[in-house]
Amino acid sequence: TNELSTQQLRWCLSPWVSPWIMVQERRYDEAVKLLERKLKQNASSQDGHDLLATALFERGKLLASGGEVGQALEAWASALPHVRGRQKLRDEIKEQAEKVAVKEATRLQGEGDRQSVEAAIGLLEKALKVADTRRVKENLSELLTSRGVIEGNDTSQSERARTPKAKRYLDRALELNPNNGRAKSNLAIVLMGEAAEPFKADRYEEA
Length: 207
Description:
This protein has helices at 2-12, 17-24, 28-41, 46-65, 69-79, 87-111, 114-130, 134-152, 159-176, 181-192. The protein is mainly alpha-helical.
């Protein structure tokens, strides 16, 4: 198209043509290293920063497609501060981060064990730094609630040991989503110290 040809011509006449070609050839790591080096010499270049953001965004997508979601989120977090004139790119980074992180967190949560839930929480905490959206917050809040319930149900620990841990997760869940009824109900149990009754998630599932 004419628009694409104009854009190609602009980059070909630009001092940033070498890293731009690398991005077109999907040589993202090389492009990032070169751009970081060149930006130390010309830190005020909008084109340079936008191109670095693009390279990091594309590298993140490549990492995510290979299952390296945590590393992808780190790449996207690094990309955002470099976005200058391309607001659409900023929105694309946030949308991609939300979509990929929630999908992977849901998969991990489905495994059901403490370690997987913890990994899903860590993933969404990373995503929150890139995409501070309602969807990410609500999903993270639910995961933290589940983690709090797991902690509260852990009879291998004394009530004194497990209660502060459960409370910490549930407090954080409500901080992210004050309307999380399941977190409220289970936090109420913690605060009332119902040690004689098992700490059950299903009982409060519909709260």
